[in-house]
Sequence to fold (1283 residues):
Amino acid sequence: MSGSSAVSGAAPCRFAHYFVICGIDTETGLEPDELAGENFEQSPLRRTFKSKVLAHYPENVEWNPFDQDAVNMLCMPKGLSFRTQADPREPQFHSFIITKEDGSRTYGFVHTFYEEVTSAQICSAMQTLYQMHNAEHGSANAPSSSSSSSSSMDSLASSLDEADSPASSSRGAGGYDSSRDTLYVSKALCLITPMPFMHACRRFLSQLHRAVTGTTAPPLPLESYVHNILYEVPLPAPGRSLKFHGVYEPIVCQRPGLGELPLADFPLGEAFNLLGVENLVQVFTCTLLEMQILLYSQDYQRLMTVAEGITTLLFPFQWQHVYVPILPASLLHFLDAPVPYLMGLQSKEGTDRSKLELPQEANLCFVDIDNHYIELPEDFPQFPNKTEFIQELSEVLLSFGLSANTGAPPRTRSSPGSTPSTPGRERKAVALRELEDDGRNGNLAGEELAVLELLQGNATLERLQALTKRTGVTVARVEALRAGVKCQGTEGQGGRTAAEEDELKNAKLNVQLREVFASRFTTMFADFEAFVIQSAPDLESWLTNREQMHNFDKASFLSDQPEPYLPFLSHFIETQMFATFIDNKIMSQWEEKEPLLRVFDARIDKARLYNVRAPNLRSSSYQRCSILKESAQTIEQRLMKIDHTAIHPHLLDMKIGQGKYEQGFFPKLQADVLNTGPTNNKWSHRTATAQRRKDRHRQQTEHLTLDNDLKEKYMQEARSLGKSLRQPKLSDLSPAVIAQTNWKFVEGLLKECRMKTKRMLVAKMGREAVELGHSEANITGLEENTLIASLCDLLERIWSHGLQVKQGKSALWSHLLHYQAREERLEQQQAESPGDLLSSHLIEIIPSLARCVSLTITTINCQTLSFVCRHIQMMSEIKTDVGRARAWIRLSLEKKLLSQHLKQLLSRQVLTKKLYKRYAFLRCEEEKEQFLFHLLSLNAVDYFCFTSVFTTIMIPYRVVIIPIKKLSNAMTTSNPWVCVSGELGDSGIMQIPKNVLEMTFDCQNLGKLTTVQLGHDNAGLLAKWLVDCVMVRNEITGHTYRFPCGRWLGKGVDDGSLERVLIGELVLPSTEEDSGRGCRTPPLQRSPSQIRRIKPTSAQIQEAIGEVVNTIVKHFHKPEKERGSLTVLLCGENSLVTALEQFFHHGFRSARLFQKTVFVWDFVEKAVAYMETADQMGDLQETTEPLGMTCQSLCRYVNAINSTSRSIGKDGKFQLLVCLGARDRLLPQWLPLLVECPVIQQMYEDTALLRDRTTVNALIGVLETLHDFPITLEASLVKGIDL
Fold:
């Protein structure tokens, strides 16, 4: 057993793990491949038949067990393919990847060629199939279409099979006749390797194929070359290059060092060439944001090149979800996965994109590689500095002679157009491909090289040659060979062949393009470490509490970023790949750093050395990559200086003549020599020893650390948080396994829902958020918008899971429309029944009852699911189904009805059963209940996610004026008016019809409501009006605002005001069932009326002023878009005006016996009158000039307020003076003037705060802190005053 132990000992360091041959099994014959979607309409040569793994060497490798089904499926994703001598039969190359459930990857490289079928049984079977096919199609002129597809996945499979290639149709009905035609079948040679050395494997396999098709036998039996690559070629060490020998030419590969970007051998230049720079950057952005990405191409290698190219560029992040660059036909049901994925789907020639029915498209990025165009999801944030980034990438491509402008402009779902065709481009690509597939590609054929080596190495022949030269005779054949070799040597620089030169160019282009991407992340995340929250004392406690932990201070990180980066970054830091990156960073304090993180950290440290900038001084200016030349030189030097040459292929100890050479046929290899490796190989012995040493070290340290199994379990759980099933299991497609996979999806969706709702709540709700690392109990609007957008994506994915038949781009909107149509039918049936006539008569008989009912009815109507749908349908601003679904979710969330609406939608079980398969999430009762419960928890907080996004729509508002009825002045003879203002504008002045206390009006979205101006023209006998409050309701979102008043409007009563500016507060519904939503009359004690006189103490007054100034300062420290209303802070209930009113009222001699009430404004007016008189008499001439100027400014402002055309009362005038003084930074200058004025002694007690110099100086100091901020006043406050 020494051989097998050598195999296992060396495997981690072996270049290749397995050599595999796939093809037709002559014993089982032709087996139709049902899983690949059998289509009997097609001619037999175009149908899919099952392929088999014919042989694989060695039998097994301990750490990479051979997965026969997966390898067979990916070597021949379409199954066997047949051709005749009339068809093109060029060999094809493609690669694949197998991702295990733990995320580790194995690469496969496949060379597919056509081999003549020698089995008479298979030829006659094909002949029989053709006769049956011709008979069927001869009898029925019109081929019967396959039964209508019941599932969107079935229709996808059939749409892929519909189009026959032109070659098949041109052969006509009699496509194959065994007496006339030669039948060929595909066969695949495959190398399975631990690392993606794509170019080396491609060259080795093509040389192996050349050895089979050559006219002469290869120098050694094929077993020697296969054995050599399996057991004698090691993986290159990091930072080193390796040379090993194929059948005819040496092959060189290199591996990046530990400090460099990891190995990526797929040609990035080709990926950019296929899509164009802008398109590739857009697909890359979708990948970063973890959307669903579907690649679409006829060519498997193109699918792999683009998929690997994009995931390679993610450094230092890694794709964390389903990754299947080549999706075999038998796995089409996997497109139903309600998780982020990156998959590649093979297109059939001539299949139109419009025929491709995909299960879900709301969050899909569709990449049509062959036609160079992409479709992007809606609401898609752009990558930061995209224009400059594209410019830099284009310059790198141009420096290598590649055009950067290919690819059609990207399209979003809202603008479907015809697929752009680029025939010239296609021809160029075909020509390039032909050049690439040419076996020689400008090199001498292997046999010729061998002949020349033989001639040059033979002394006798060399002497003969010298003699012929002297006598003037030339040996033409030898001269031609030598010229060819010389030409080959001079073709590249430094004696490299054209193929090697091309490979070097590719490697240099690859690394330079990757460096540009890596440089962007180094710039964007240079200071990420400052925001990582290290909260656990050890690894075990961190792993056990991972789900509850808050690992990254997102709010602070975003507040530190340049404004243009925020739309992208706010989405990106919510992704699984970013969470895993941060997890790796935290775990690196206890265990070895993850390789990508190690490289990234080293780059950040290096950048800090060269670029010493303060972390907070961020700029959005673009920083170009500075190490392009350096990185390319490193690669070139490695390829120039070969560090290691592997053992040459040699004769093996095996029976001669078993695998006899027969041109065009791949022989059966001898398994006994290929299943075991050499026992005396120094290199394999060395790695086995190293492995044993590692094992010993692990056993010693095991008892010091956590038990390894337990730790691994924790690690897997920690890393899979919020992540659904990572990979489909390719090897087992039984119904039980598919059901289990779907069950995992259901569990994953529920977990994701729980985490998203929790995150939304924590971000919104005060103290808990502060404890978990938010700087204060407030979520930024940007962060909130990102979280809601990701909730919309989750709901779309849940509604797309297990659909029977897909209708439209949005599964949720489609379900809502079905529900709405059903409800409308029921309503119609009820309307036709006579019972309704009675209720309408009742309302006619009792009009007063009708008025009371109207508010309740509108409230109830506004809350129905159909009402919300109808409203969304009327919004002309939204053009797509996906947009409508998102608007519906936002509106329901703002109305606190999302859970209730979805429960209502899913209560129609007949409809749900009709639309969804049994395994769908929406048909799993227990999970559905939990999901609705998680959504219900969002009702605990207030969202304005509809109002703040759809700012231009028209909204109906309802205004109700509530007078204080007990004082008989519920009505007035004057003509009242109202003006409603919000954060986005105002309604303008609207006359209220006489003796009507309720009105509705339509107006462009006002945003959150801030103020209501209420007044009247003082006409008639009863021109006094005592108003308790004004209620305003947004009829779409259901938000109701209460504007307290509690004062009189009228001349000669209260402060003589004919109009008041009222400040609003949002009314919360008292219970879920409270359909009135706060529309009832509020309790009286909440009105801030003039009668309220609970005198605060001097300490309380001073504390209130400090608090309100502090709140205003905080307001300005928030990002501009997230500040809310400044008016509330200046004039609301606990505002600057209220606090200063209390200060001025302290010790004020206002209530005189048998005299009218005196107001603070009276004191201000008297003080100004005194100053004006003193000024006229010259008393103020002696004062310093600044003081004189301040006097003049105070007088000017007070006179302007008094002479305004508005009929505001004395308290209103004082409010206006405070607001204007705060705006123009004059309050601290005016206070000393009022204090010095002799009028103060008549109007204030000696104990008044205003007469205490120390207190007044402290107040001035506090008010001066507002000078740093630009206070702007709402138009409703300063209307009619021009200062």
About this structure: DSSP finds 46 helices and 25 strands in the chain. The CA atoms of residues 200 and 1068 lie 69 Å apart. The longest strand covers residues 105-116. The radius of gyration is 40 Å.
